[in-house]
Write a structure and sequence with these properties.
By secondary structure, the protein is mainly alpha-helical. It folds into two domains: 2-59, no CATH class; 66-157. It has nine helices and no strands. It has helices spanning 2-11, 15-25, 28-35, 45-56, 66-71, 80-92, 99-109, 114-121, 127-157.
Length: 158
């Protein structure tokens, strides 16, 4: 809406023109909602904005905060690789998170295991350090999983 207002401000359109131009940009549910309005219920562009914002405010996507990162937990059956992928995806949605917050949230979300213990014993110096150390444990998990699979296959072939 702000983008639209800035664009029409440049052209100095009257309220009537602004309403018609905005109306021509509406599609799908926005157009349907507009069509359901009582005729004559919008008297100015300001009225149009108020009605539009009330109708669609609930569909606004909320910005995640760094608190969202502290809610993330590594589930028992999930690998470290899967947790890192989920965590990193969430960090992209939290631009205000500092490296210290990322380290704290990540560590708090880990299930207790060798990697968690290593982070407690020697805290990482940066988030990149944490990820570099995590990569070693991811490789260890992958190798252990591969070995278990091979042992099962050998056991079934005997």
């Amino acid at each position: 809406m702000r983008r639209f207002e800035n664009a029409v401000l440049l052209h100095q359109y009257s309220d009537g023109i602004k309403c018609r131009v905005l109306l021509s940009t509406l599609v799908k549910s926005a157009q349907q909602r507009f069509n359901m309005l009582k005729p004559g219920s919008i008297r100015s562009f300001k009225d149009f904005i108020v009605v539009f914002m009330h109708q669609f405010y609930s569909s606004k996507k909320y910005q995640n905060t760094y608190l969202s990162l502290f809610v993330m937990k590594q589930k028992d059956q999930k690998t470290l690789r899967e947790f890192i992928q989920r965590f990193n995806c969430m960090t992209l949605e939290v631009p205000t998170a500092t490296p210290d917050i990322l380290i704290s949230a990540f560590t708090q979300g880990l299930k207790v295991g060798e990697f968690f213990k290593s982070l407690v014993k020697k805290p990482p110096s940066s988030y990149n350090d944490l990820l570099a150390r995590a990569e070693k444990y991811v490789n260890l998990e992958d190798t252990q999983r591969q070995r278990r699979t091979e042992q099962r296959q050998r056991g079934s072939n005997v």
